[in-house]
Amino acid sequence: MEPLTGFRASVWSCFKFLPFFCGLLLLGIIKGVLFGPWAWFIMAIGISALVLGLWPMHVIWTYYCIIRTKLVGPVVKLLLLISVSGVLVMWLIVGVLGSVLAGLAYGFLAPVMATFDALGEGKERPLVHCFVDGTWSTITGGCTVVRDMKDMLLHSYLAYMDDLRFHEPPGGKPFEIRVLDIPGAVLAAACGLLMDGIMFTVIALYKFPVMLFKGWKRLIEDLVGREGPFLETVCVPFAGLAILLWPFAVLGAFLASMISSVPLGAYAAIVVYQESSLFMGLSYAISSVSIFDEYTNDVLDMAPGSCFPRFVYRKNQASVESGPLSRPASFRDKQDGKKAPARITSFKSSFDEFNPFKLLDHLFEECQHRGEALVAEGVITPKDIEETKSGKGGSGVLNVGLPAYVILNALLRSAKADSNGLLLRDGCEITSDNRPKNTLFDWFFDPLMVIKDQIKAENFTEEEEAYLQKRVLLISDPKRLKATLPHLPSLNERKQAEIDAFARRLQGITKSISRYPTSKRRFDDLVKALSEELERAMGGSRSVRGSQFQKLKSGLVRMLSQRSMGKTTSIRGYDQEAQLNSNASAA
């Protein structure tokens, strides 16, 4: 009998794998039922306690920083104080309810995903991992989430508030708004919120079944043809789970469409202020419905364009619409010549590439490697580590200078290798193609690429690179910087100013990275590792010094004892001689 090929083979492999998939799913659900409530309890109680406990501090400190900031004028401050009151009240409600929902989702999904992930490549004894993974790790993961939330509500929040409070306005003039445009902006925002809220909901509800059945059709086609996320066997469980949970994804997209109506509708106020025209704001409020409908048509591969009216809402925008009911060009028409997105060839490889948290792991591993070398050289002192551990910040050499120093070395390495992206120490290269598709990561990656190109254009010598490295590492400690910077006769004022600019920009990027989620926890682990390395180094030196001190102490004891014995002998001899003289005189 000939083996099955083509479509029949794909269907047979699907049905053959189905019992295995159902068994893993059932095991994951059982673990979710057993361990999920504990993770939910930890996250719900922990995050709610943080939100409620820190809320008074957030209220007082937010008001204080807005009042003291120099970036905006009095009118803007008044508007910010009014608007931030609603945000703080909403945060209190969203934070508590979000902690409960996030705890439920994490407590149930984490064991299920860990069960399927136990069959990944490189895992030894997968049968044991199927039962063990997702049990205790789910509980510890809940504690980690609470810790990261605490770092965000304290460390990141205070850092952003300090920027608001201390930064000087560009050009020395605070930003102020035109008071006469405020009523029109408020009216346009109200109309935009009302219209977008209703129309976005209607459009999303109309396209809900389209997204549901088209998504199922695409996933089933990939399952039968072993394409996309079903290409690798290890990824089949995840893709099968995606088929089962696809309705929840569609429901999430529906809710996201409703939520997106809030910022898009409120943007009408910005249009009114920028164009100084209420008519332009109302035109945008109507046109935003067409823009949303056109965008969803392109995402769902439906007919291009939109039947809703689209007006000109910018004065410098050319009038391309002939009437209110005209069908504007599709977003796809605007992207002619661009390569169409291809199907995912490997679900697992794309997951590894597009994970920004793994890049943070690379950064802090390199920080530990470089930091241990700097501790051994004496550049990082015990005072730096103790001040950082105590939370004082100190000189900033460890919490700001060291990560900037590591990033600078990566930029120098990439510039020398003529890399198109960022070359890591282990040989991995981050380019514009495989970088994480994350807006927060773009804020860091694009400026770093600009700095790398500028460093490459400068073509620094080895002495100038060493000067730049010292400048980046110790820029927060001017006294130590002045004492350790080498003197370079070839360094003119222009190049020195450029080096100083590089150092300041790298330190600014490092401060922004320190506010990224999970960065504070990773940095605390780094400080702990450097502290242990310092203790080992100091312990070795102390043992050598201790043996030398014992030898010195024993030598002093012997010397003093010999001197005391000699002195006693001389005293005794003197007494005997005096006694003989007295006897002779008496005779």
Automatic annotation (TrEMBL):
<feature type="transmembrane region" description="Helical">
    <location>
        <begin position="185"/>
        <end position="208"/>
    </location>
</feature>
<dbReference type="InterPro" id="IPR040229">
    <property type="entry name" value="At3g27390-like"/>
</dbReference>
<feature type="transmembrane region" description="Helical">
    <location>
        <begin position="40"/>
        <end position="66"/>
    </location>
</feature>
<feature type="transmembrane region" description="Helical">
    <location>
        <begin position="229"/>
        <end position="248"/>
    </location>
</feature>
<keyword id="KW-0472">Membrane</keyword>
<feature type="region of interest" description="Disordered">
    <location>
        <begin position="567"/>
        <end position="587"/>
    </location>
</feature>
<keyword id="KW-0812">Transmembrane</keyword>
<protein>
    <recommendedName>
        <fullName>Steroid nuclear receptor ligand-binding</fullName>
    </recommendedName>
</protein>
<feature type="transmembrane region" description="Helical">
    <location>
        <begin position="78"/>
        <end position="109"/>
    </location>
</feature>
<feature type="transmembrane region" description="Helical">
    <location>
        <begin position="12"/>
        <end position="34"/>
    </location>
</feature>
<feature type="compositionally biased region" description="Polar residues">
    <location>
        <begin position="578"/>
        <end position="587"/>
    </location>
</feature>
<keyword id="KW-1133">Transmembrane helix</keyword>
